[in-house]
Amino acid sequence: MWTKGTITLPNGNKTETTLKYWVKHFEEPNETYGIDGGRISKLTIKTDGQITCSYERGWAIEPEGEATQLAYAILMEKYN
Known about the structure:
Structural class: alpha+beta
Oligomer: single chain
Strand content: over 45%
């Protein structure tokens, strides 16, 4: 199943960072293709139009930057 959305994180100084994400996840964990043997088989996170995280049955770009790492943690908790 594909899910897409946005995550908005406070950035200090009354500003926010909005990240867009696309995640493909299985209903059950998958030891072969899932992140850490979990349910997520594909994941893309973009910050300001730049890909800052990309997983497609293996890491192309590991989570970069604090905002992306926070978004990644949120998505892992929800979908993996």
